[in-house]
Design a protein that fits this description.
- By secondary structure, the protein is of the alpha/beta class.
- 44% of the residues lie in helices and 8% in strands.
- The protein has a 9-stranded parallel β-sheet.
- Helix 6 links the parallel strand 4 and strand 5.
- The longest helix has 23 residues.
Length: 342
């Protein structure tokens, strides 16, 4: 059985002590209790109305004892943050959590990092959390290769998703793209470091983000992209192929962090500098007192399209005709001149 300190803590949870708002349970508890005691702990947590943080990480759980705990742990009106990292959970463990996930009415953050839930477990997780108020979900190092969740079954309030250190490849990028498109898109930050995303995957993500407005942060460190992938993200945030294309560039992304291989570091840095410049413009207009993101693209037209030297550099990087004036329709000249004279 657990030691006296833990017994006192569990007693306070059972008694619904208003001063006990967090609970951390280690593997030694589950190694020394009966099945009935595991279920009782789950039931006490469910009945508690003051507990906000629950930590059951670092090999505390596995597919055998998780169902025992979840026989009692079927709901919560107070828990905001649950940490289940570094356990031995598979899709079976996630399935046992479904009643709790569907009835944790105040849940805001869930950390399932370093488990082995795989794509099937992630899909179950998303469907279970569809109507949850959850805003942050971490599934780092969970053996996820692909994602087969449509936007109708994705958590409706999720803003921050961490899928780092998985095996996400081009198929996974197709699945992520579906979540970034459409009126139901909610993510504001997406972390995809240490996966298997190459230039084709980068292209899929860039295409999905052309008309996306919620996402402001995209992290893609330690993947398999090259400078060609960098060019795709440059074109995403400042497409200089035409004035119309610049005006339709992504205007809400504020941070793209990625690696593009070790070839030609000078070119790599130049492309990243142009990406950062476009993102700074986005950020400026997103955080200004009047908050008019659409003005960001007009600013890009002024600073790049109407600045011959800058446009020539960007055109060379994007492989487009560097002559701006050859593509200006005379009917659009008043609008262009209005931008210059703002």
């Amino acid at each position: 059985m657990s030691n006296n300190s833990e017994n006192n803590e569990f007693h306070r949870i059972k008694e619904n002590d208003p001063h006990t708002t967090s609970l951390s349970v280690d593997k030694f508890f589950f190694e020394n209790v009966t099945e009935e005691e595991s279920e009782e702990l789950g039931r006490d947590i469910s009945n508690n109305t003051h507990l906000e943080y629950l930590e059951l990480g670092s090999t505390a759980l596995n597919d055998r004892n998780m169902p025992l705990l979840c026989r009692g742990l079927t709901r919560s009106a107070s828990i905001k943050n649950v940490a289940l990292y570094d356990n031995g959970l598979s899709v079976a463990g996630v399935l046992s959590m479904v009643p709790f996930l569907q009835n944790a009415n105040n849940l805001q953050e869930l950390d399932l990092g370093d488990n082995n839930i795989k794509p099937e477990g992630f899909n179950v997780l998303c469907r279970s959390l569809r109507d949850s108020p959850i805003e942050t979900l971490s599934c780092q190092k969970c053996g996820i290769e692909s994602i087969d969740v449509d936007s109708d079954n994705f958590p409706r309030h999720l803003m921050h998703l961490d899928l780092g250190n998985n095996n996400i490849n081009i198929d996974g990028c197709h699945g992520i793209a579906k979540l970034l498109q459409g009126k139901n898109a909610t993510l504001s930050s997406l972390y995809l470091s240490m996966n298997k995303i190459d230039d084709d995957g980068a292209g899929i993500l860039a295409d999905a983000l052309r008309n996306n407005t919620p996402l402001t942060t995209l992290v893609l460190k330690y993947n398999m992209m090259t400078i060609e992938g960098a060019k795709l993200f440059l074109q995403l945030v400042n497409d200089v192929s035409s004035i119309k294309a610049t005006l339709q560039s992504n205007r809400t992304l504020q941070r793209i962090t990625a690696d593009y291989g070790e070839d030609d570091q000078d070119l790599n840095e130049r492309i990243q500098r142009h990406i950062d410049n476009a993102l700074k413009i986005n950020a400026l207009y997103a955080t200004s007192s009047w908050s008019l993101p659409e003005e960001a693209c007009k600013e890009k037209v002024i600073l790049t399209q109407l600045h011959s030297e800058t446009r020539a550099k960007l055109a060379a990087l994007q492989g487009v005709n560097h002559s701006l004036y050859s593509e200006i329709n005379p009917l659009h000249l008043p609008e262009v001149l209005a931008l210059v004279g703002r």
